[in-house]
Amino acid sequence: ESDTASEISFQFNRHKKTPSIGSHSSDMASVSSVSGSVLSVYSGDFGSVDAQGTVEFALDYDEKNREFQVLVSQCKDLAVVDEKKGRSDPYVKTYLLPDKARMGKRKTSVKKRTVNPIYNEVLRYKIEKMVLLIQKLNLSVWHNDPLGRNSFLGEIEIDLASWDWSNRKLNWYLLKPRSLSAVNGVDHRGVMSLSIKYVPPGSLGKCPKNPPSGEVHIWVKDVKDLLQLRPSGVDSFVKCYVLPDTSKKSYQKTRVIKRDTNPVFNHTIVYDGFHTEDLKDACVELTVWDHEKLTNHFLGGIRLGLGTGLSYGISVDWMDSTQEEVAFWQEMMLAANEWIEGLLPLRSL
User: ω before 98 within 30° of 0 (cis)?
Assistant: First the structure.
């Protein structure tokens, strides 16, 4: 069924409903290292304020320094967020799409109490020109709220493949509501094909202790339509954790498949140490990464669990499975010793 198999134990105190502050913070730090880098990408308050106004900026590519530059000049007639005080505290944020997380965000300073802010700031990206030309620039304007969620004020999206690079002049652009590509296409990160199976304790053979504890089997088959971060393709691999256990014992990964946006992994992982009641509180996190020498880049992932927001009585942000992921996990819980096949979209987590 697969060319690699791994078996490790799912180990932590199931009955400890209120762990110490030290151990809890350690777990959360580990979870953040896996998926926290992209949490801010899709956060914010969309739709509470109607987009209006314009933004003035210019684009340039510095061939000598291999640097993409966005000169943000100013905005005019932005929406008012706090109507009682008649104020907005705007700033400008940029991403390179399709993968917001890889290149990261750049943002200007915040200008307080104005709907006509002047910035005159340069946002810079170190990136090869040939890679830049398969990107889109997403430039958005936001109201800064230090005590709550920042409010979206409008955006503009530019296809850099068709951009006139001889045009280095400042130009005005109309700010638009959140684009369909930002809602749908941008967050399309591929689809994972996999099968899972739960083997309850003592359910195999005549021996009542076979297996001595429950097992969760995860068969990662393949992934389709991964984000292509460079012209040569993507060198991908899959990481797996069983949350809340983020220790080295829980961590497993597949081999790296090079230069392929449709990699076939065919990799099986077995976690033992499961009791049936653990299935309600545990979450299998599978994340896909692009492998590079200096750092790996997050491509997308799935979380298999009940999506209740709670784990052993503790509120956790990673228990956030989608309806499809929850249904997949529930089907496994109801069909002991049977492989359940699924095709699940990767998401930003």
Answer: yes
